[in-house]
Amino acid sequence: MTDTSVPNHAPDGAAGPACPAAHPDAVALSGLQYQQTPFELYRELRRKHGAVAPVLLDGGIPAWLALGYAEVSYVTSHDELFARDSRRWNQWPNIPADWPLLPYVGYQPSVLFTEGAEHQRRAGVISDALEGVDQLELSQHCQRIADQLVDRFAGSGQAELMSSYAHALPMRAAVQMCGMPLDGADTEALVEDLRMSLDAAEGDDPVAAYVRVQERIQQLVADKRRSPGPDVTSRMIASPAGLADEEIVQDLISVIAAAQQPTGNWIGNTLRLLLTDDRFALNVSGGRVSVGQALNEVLWLDTPTQNFIGRWAVRDIQLGGRQIRAGDCVVLGLAAANTDPQIWPEGHVGAQVNSAHLSFSNGEHRCPFPAPQLADVIARTAVETLLERLPDIVLAVEPEELAWRPSIWMRGLTALPVAFTPVVQ
């Protein structure tokens, strides 16, 4: 049986150096400014601290936030200097057992924390399993799922799209790719626990939620060992790399989590852009003229994963003019890096349609091929199908009434209420 506890310390005999005190000018990564207008905070941090800022995580735990495009690219391209194994962290003696960020940083035998040849082996298994997904077939599955979801509210003339569509569609697509049943209380509970573990709201217990996620995926792997099918889980089990069940469980959690929450917010953020930006107002009818541009612009300006924790310094090193100590945590400021004025001449952020953004990270630990392409298929199909089914859809509130989720990690709306002409089924 896999150990489902979430460790909160370095392994025995591997404690890091004495924990450094927080920088006197460190800024807490929390508060209303982060919730609704994080880019103003990024600008202020960049003005005051430059490309790398001292910050405080939950509970006053010190870390560094890499804000610059060049700095984030450097960190993610140099695994020998900034590694993924969180057991290097020099703050473990200060981390309580119920720390809310444990699902992010508590070491697990997952591809997310592996390094070197082991990471290449594990990531290769995921890439091979995902390459087995036929993208045309995935698009057709997503269109069927989208039609089913739209059918539920099309006759009412109104809907709240984040819960009823934007998050529901990639969840169903992800579980179907992995060989789980589309419907049922078990699957819905898994999705809710994934949400809590990745983006906990007040009153949630992300650590307990993550344990339940592990238990459900353990059962899925056991089921697929007995009865394999044409799905990602079965292909991972059958890989010549011979991953142990515990490794497959952890890597499947990474795959499902990445396919569900960020893709849901990508869909929601794109729909918000299309419904609130006059540049798209004349082009969205039918959903095919500017959807691709909107999807790409969102990855630059409202990327679903704002910040990612993180990398840990292998040795003392300078970054962005800061002295980083061995074992320090560096948070990847993906959203800040994407809007770095150093890469946008004259402040024309997002003016170019290209894919040089860091929304899928960079380097050895970037989102493995072909995961970004599969996410694009899911998101594009979701947006296009909704606009085709409901061509006169409009926002049901004023744009300034839309609220962002109170998260420093994810960028997504709490709700996206819309109105449209009711469609008789």
UniProtKB/TrEMBL annotation:
It comes from the Bacteria. InterPro entries: Cyt_P450_B, Cyt_P450_sf, Rhodanese-like_dom. Gene3D superfamilies: Cytochrome P450 (1.10.630.10). SUPFAM superfamilies: Cytochrome P450. GO terms for molecular function: heme binding; iron ion binding; monooxygenase activity; oxidoreductase activity, acting on paired donors, with incorporation or reduction of molecular oxygen. Residues 56-73 form the Rhodanese domain. Belongs to the cytochrome P450 family. This is Cytochrome.
